[in-house]
Amino acid sequence: MLKRFSLRTKIMFAIGALVAIAMLGGSTTIWMVHRMNSAVSSVISFKAAALNVSQEMESSLAMQRGLLSYYYIDGNSEWLTQLDQHRFEFENWLKKAREFADTDLERELLNDIESKYIRYTNLRERVIDLYKAGKREDGYALHKDVRSPYFAIRDLCEQFKQVQYERVGLISEGIRLKVAFFDTAASIAMVCALGLGITLGVLLLSRVLVPIRLLALTAGRDGGGPLDEPDEVKALGKKIQGLIESVDTTRIELEQSREHLLQSEKLAQIGKLAAGVAHSIRNPLTSVKMRLFSLERTLSLSAAQKEDFDVISEEIRHIDTIVGNFLEFSRPPKLKIQKASPSEVVDMAVQLLRHRIDSYGVTLELMRDRKLPEVDCDPEQLKEVLVNLIVNACEAMVDGGRILITEEEGVIDPMGRVVVIRVSDSGPGIPEAIREKIFEPFYTTKQEGTGLGLSIAARIIQEHRGCLSVKCRPHKGAAFTVALPCKEEGAWLRSL
What we know:
Four Helix Bundle (Hemerythrin (Met), subunit A), alpha+beta, Helix Hairpins, 496 residues, 10% strand
């Protein structure tokens, strides 16, 4: 029948039974202690008082006999005064004894004591009268007769006291029986609790702990192994945490693979498109450029015609740039690696763009403590990257501004020792929402842009085994950082 219930139900049932037994045992203990306390209190407050009364009655009776004998010896009336006091005490103790008498036997004994005491006191008064009259021999003879009722009363008092002892014994026996019952109940409860504890332990061990240990041993990316924690639950938690991290890592890798796949598909499509553009547009465009150059040299143009001619030439140049970007992105030229200082490349890019920078109203500053050491690079490709970054910075500052180029050497994990070129501007910066997209192909915020400039620059730096990153703050400009690996030992280094 128990097999039909779930593991949770079985465990909860066993725990509930243990709790119930513990509560029952505790309640029984409290009840028994209360009952025993009541019984003991009853014995102390009631029967102990009854015993005390019976003993006081015997003591008072014995004092009365002794005082009568003292009076016989010396005839001192002081003994008679004390005799009256003890007689009064005996009668009071007799009255109190009736208050504690709750059985017919006790009441019957007290009635006999009272009747015999009356006869005893009457005979004793006659003896005292004879002693007072000077008839000592007659008084002494009657004095001997007083002994018989005295011993009878003493025996009755002793019987009354014995009854109290018996009553105390009965109460003690009741307490003993209750204690025995409590011991039996406690023993049964202990046996039941032990059985349930063993059952619960076996259930937890076989259905919970052992499976958890086996799961902990077999979990993990490595397929199992010894546990590094004695606690199976903690070990399993660590293994599961490792699996979660592995799942997250795998998910990230899958997303990256998906992005790379999409990127590859885009590149393949761009390659086909660029090849078609190269064959369909590049050659006619070259012919148009040559004819326009010839016409410009041979024709005399008015100012308006000259302006139109310049616009046509600029648009043709723009088309040629777009076609060139497509071709470059689809079929990037192989790097021509050589030893060169990036500082020289920076100088060439600045010299090339000097007039363009001035036309934007931009001020360019170069911070260089010394020339950067030579690295393995393609100076032309690296110059293209720097040109792209400087032009983007100029276009970002519509109303003019400041460009700062900083050259540094340092160490970046995990690349190691690097040379760094940082291009910063004082423009509006890049909104955080699009910051991660600016290196994606075809993503642009410019009306006439192709969205290939930064993606080409990032790929060129990656082919140099470096990295291109950007940092910016709202309304405080953007800072693009180019880091290239450097093998030459330099004189100054710092962590970047």
